[in-house]
Design a protein that fits this description.
The complex is a heterodimer. Chain A is mainly alpha-helical. Chain A has one domain: Helix Hairpins, CATH 1.10.287.3510. Chain A contains three helices and no strands. The longest helix of chain A has about 35 residues, at about 60-90. Chain B folds into two domains: about 10-240, no CATH class; about 245-458, no CATH class. Chain B has a two-stranded antiparallel sheet with strand order 1-2. The longest helix of chain B has about 30 residues, at about 130-160. The chains are: A mainly alpha, B mainly alpha. Chain A: One of its GO terms (molecular function) is NADH dehydrogenase (quinone) (non-electrogenic) activity.
């Protein structure tokens, strides 16, 4: 079965926007990290769809996705470590309660 | 390159000196290398004089920062090994960033540089401000990386390639639908990169991060990733989209005016010197952006000169902040009252750095500003030129506030401030370079013209 590229683009755009909305509206730092993962997954689907549908060299898109997955995992690891650190320091991970630095 | 480090040496001081020496060796090696522009690893990298220039820039910043951080007491001693390692890795990643000419490499380099900076920001594990700064940096940075990546995926879809030059040629022959997708992709990418160089309206993270991070890290973050971020933007725009130059030129001009105005106006009211310098560095990014807003050789040359001048000036200013923070344990502007009596050299060098940031002759910042101004006027961008002039006047106000505090006010405590050797060394180096670039700019201009010889400018 062949899915037209437009449909996939609409799907990934919606996915990306859901992630963006989550990242901007969530109060919980871990929730924000999860939203960011959703955004990155939208990107990955995009790459795969494009490389499948018409790229002359499909492997470059696929390799890109491999790297993106690895770096997303690394970001999540670093991110959780930082969230853990902030919890140890301030006993909260709700972003609206973390406001030592402000103008 | 510098890589091998022994982490089993118990004397952390020694470890630091080894790092400095290795960066120095890499600098000499990089400085003496000359060969024609070559593509490495299937053209994923391009080593040309442009990349070379940014490599020198990045290594200098990293080396001076390591040297200055010996004097910074607030990082736990048990973490010093990791700290130096991260800084060295940071240097390597920055050089990769300057040489990347491929979407994949750009993504990898930008992302790993950001990730290293999150960790560096939070290296004071038991300090609440440092932890909070790193969390904010992480959240903003990750969202911006995601949007940059989304832009890259659209560009890839529109042009079926991830090589910048191939994207450029494919983009011109693309049909209108693909053209539109590619343009949206470019916009998303610019949003992501704009976050990294903290241009308004993507600057919200910068003051918090710069204030909360350990001072040596702040010094590095305001200089090196910013300069390399500009390098990436220059590569993307000039390699892939030269035919759209007038469009992105206008866009960048608007962003540039916004950036310098917002940065300068908010900086006036700041009471914390690190925060004030943070806003000032946002404003400085606006001036650099003005050079890019008038696409062409002149603008590009101005950008590189400005970045080099800004490197030494801003590093120097933050190193002075380290020296004062060490003694007074405060970053308030009040801590600078009567500094001229407590340590005349420190006050003099701070004054020189601030005047250079304000663009007073005969200092480095003045040379940078003159070239930016010349490029803008040559391109008949009158509005932009007026904005730069007005902003320089506003900026001078808050720089002079510090200088007044140092020379005209008196402090209750008059004990002299001692400088350790390493910090003194970095201060002298930056001081000398700020003066040298200001008085003999021809050498720098020669170097930069060489850097641009292998660059495809229209």
């Amino acid at each position: 079965m062949h899915i037209p590229i437009d449909h996939i683009l609409v799907f990934t755009s919606i996915l990306f926007l859901i992630g963006l909305y989550g990242a901007l509206s969530r109060r919980n730092a871990v929730g924000i990290l999860i939203s960011i993962e959703i955004m990155l997954n939208a990107v990955n689907v995009n790459f795969i769809a494009f490389s499948r549908s018409f790229a002359s060299s499909p492997e470059s898109g696929q390799i890109f996705v491999m790297f993106a997955i690895v770096l997303a995992a690394a970001t999540a690891a670093v991110g959780l470590a930082i969230v853990l650190n902030i919890y140890r320091n301030q006993k909260t991970i709700y972003t609206d309660e973390i406001h030592l630095l402000k103008w | 390159m510098v890589l091998v480090m022994d982490f089993f040496i118990s004397n952390k001081k020694l470890l630091g000196w080894i790092s400095v020496l290795s960066v120095g060796a890499a600098l000499i090696f990089a400085g003496t290398q000359t060969y024609p522009a070559t593509g490495l690893f299937f053209n994923f990298f391009t080593i040309d004089f442009f990349a070379q220039f940014f490599r020198l820039l990045a290594l200098t910043a990293v080396g001076l920062t390591i040297l200055a951080s010996f004097a910074f007491k607030k990082i736990p001693v048990s973490l010093h090994g990791e700290f130096y390692f991260l800084l060295l890795g940071f240097g390597v990643l920055l050089t990769v960033m300057g040489a990347a000419t491929n979407l994949l490499m750009i993504f990898l380099a930008v992302e790993s540089v950001s990730m290293t900076s999150y960790v560096l920001t939070g290296i004071q594990k038991f300090n609440k401000q440092s932890a909070e700064a790193s969390l904010k940096y992480l959240l903003f940075g990750a969202v911006s990386s995601a949007s940059m990546l989304f832009g890259m995926s659209l560009l890839f879809g529109a042009t079926q390639s991830i090589d910048l030059l191939a994207i450029g040629s494919a983009f011109q022959s693309a049909n209108s639908g693909m053209h539109a997708i590619g343009l949206v992709g470019l916009l998303f990418m610019l949003v992501g990169l704009g976050f990294k160089i903290s241009i308004v309206p993507f600057h919200m993270w910068a003051p918090d991060v710069y204030q909360g991070a350990p001072t040596p890290v702040t010094a590095l973050l305001t200089v090196a990733p910013k300069a390399l971020g500009f390098a990436v933007i220059i590569r993307v725009l000039f390699y892939a989209f030269p035919h759209l130059a007038s469009h992105w030129g206008n866009l960048l001009a608007v962003l540039s005016i916004l950036t310098m105005t917002v940065g300068n106006i908010i900086a006036i009211t700041q009471a914390d010197i690190k925060r004030m310098l943070a806003y000032s560095s946002i404003a400085q990014a606006g001036y650099v952006l003005a050079g890019l807003a008038v696409p062409g050789v002149l603008g590009l040359r101005a950008v590189l000169i400005y970045l080099l001048a800004y490197l030494f000036t801003n590093l120097g200013a933050f190193f002075t902040v380290i020296a004062v923070e060490r003694e007074t344990d405060s970053n308030e502007v009040d801590a600078y009252d009567g500094l001229a009596q407590r340590n005349p050299f420190l006050a003099l060098s701070m004054a020189v750095f601030l005047l250079s940031l304000a663009g007073i002759p005969p200092l480095a910042g003045f040379v940078g500003k003159v070239f930016i101004f010349m490029a803008v006027l040559k391109a008949d961008a009158i509005v932009l030129a007026i904005a730069i002039a007005l902003n320089s006047a506003v900026a001078a106000y808050y720089y002079f506030r510090i200088i007044r505090a140092m020379y005209l006010r008196t402090n209750k405590t008059v004990t002299p401030i001692q400088n350790p050797l390493s910090l003194q060394l970095t201060l002298i180096t930056t001081f000398v370079f700020v003066l040298l670039i200001g008085i003999f700019p021809s050498h720098v201009i020669h170097l930069i013209e060489k850097a641009l010889t292998q660059f495809p400018v229209f």
